[in-house]
């Protein structure tokens, strides 16, 4: 992606420092923050994959499960689960050292089951109000954000923003443009 001819002030998603984005896709202030964000995404994906594999190994007919299995199956952290067990909120059985078992029925009362959908839900198409009072013209966008008309057209095509032409003017929803150039 080429360098932008205009400046967009953003906040880094990792460190929170303000910076001027070089492109519309820039989300991090430096290469180091980009690497940190990449590592976080990979770590989270690896963790979810591990939880999913553990969940698939658990038999559905077992009434009592271990704490790590409960963490994998339900949306609860390990420390919270141990705290509930210690308080007596969730009944458990201790079969020996490191052999705590928790009732699956009790867990289902308190926590929702973790959802491992492989296919993301289909996004419903957005409904746009393309009336002139809720839209910018291309010229207004160029003046407001100090960019060329050709750059505005390029971004509209790239991000699939709907347009409406009335006479000589092309109207674009204010909401989408403000989100794009914020």
Give the helices and strands, then pairings.
Blueprint: E1 8-11, E2 18-21, H1 31-57, E3 64-66, H2 67-73, H3 78-87, E4 92-94, E5 100-103, H4 104-110, E6 135-137, H5 138-145, H6 149-158, E7 164-166, E8 169-173, H7 174-180
Antiparallel strand pairs: 1-2, 3-5, 4-5, 6-8, 7-8
Helix pairs in contact: 1-2
Characteristic key phrases:
single chain; 182 residues; Arc Repressor Mutant, subunit A; three-stranded antiparallel beta sheet
What's the quick description here?
It is built from seven helices and eight strands, in the order ββαβααββαβααββα. By secondary structure, it is an alpha+beta fold. Helix content is 42%, strand content 16%.
Along the chain, the helix and strand elements come as: EEHEHHEEHEHHEEH
Question: Which strand order spans the largest sheet, edge to edge or round the barrel?
Answer: 3-5-4
How many domains, in number, for the residues? 3
Strand residue content:
15-25%
In CATH, the topology of the largest domain is named Arc Repressor Mutant, subunit A
**Structural class category:** alpha+beta
Note down, in words, how this protein is organized:
There is one protein chain. The chain has 3 domains: 42 residues, no CATH class; 53 residues, Arc Repressor Mutant, subunit A; 49 residues, Orthogonal Bundle (Arc Repressor Mutant, subunit A), CATH 1.10.10. It is 42% helix and 16% strand. The strands form 3 sheets. A 3-stranded antiparallel sheet has the order 3-5-4. Strands 6-8-7 form a 3-stranded antiparallel sheet. Strands 1-2 form a two-stranded antiparallel ribbon. The longest helix is centred in the N-terminal third of the chain and has 27 residues. The model has no long low-confidence stretch (mean pLDDT 86).
């Amino acid at each position: 992606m080429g360098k932008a001819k205009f400046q967009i002030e953003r906040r880094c998603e990792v460190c929170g420092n303000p910076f001027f984005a070089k492109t519309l896709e820039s989300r991090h202030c430096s290469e180091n923050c980009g690497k940190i964000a990449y590592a976080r995404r990979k770590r989270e994906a690896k963790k979810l994959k591990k939880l999913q594999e553990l969940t698939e190994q658990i038999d559905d007919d077992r009434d009592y499960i271990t704490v790590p299995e409960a963490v994998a199956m339900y949306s609860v952290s390990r420390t919270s689960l141990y705290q509930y067990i210690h308080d007596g909120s969730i009944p458990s059985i201790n079969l020996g050292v490191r052999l705590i078992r928790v009732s699956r029925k009790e867990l289902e009362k308190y926590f929702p089951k973790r959802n491992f959908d492989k296919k993301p839900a289909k996004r419903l198409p957005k409904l746009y109000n393309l009336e002139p009072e809720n839209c910018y013209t291309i010229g207004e966008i160029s003046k407001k954000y100090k960019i060329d008309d050709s750059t505005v057209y390029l971004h509209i095509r790239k991000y699939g923003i709907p347009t409406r032409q009335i006479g000589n003017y092309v109207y674009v929803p204010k909401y989408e443009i403000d989100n794009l150039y914020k």
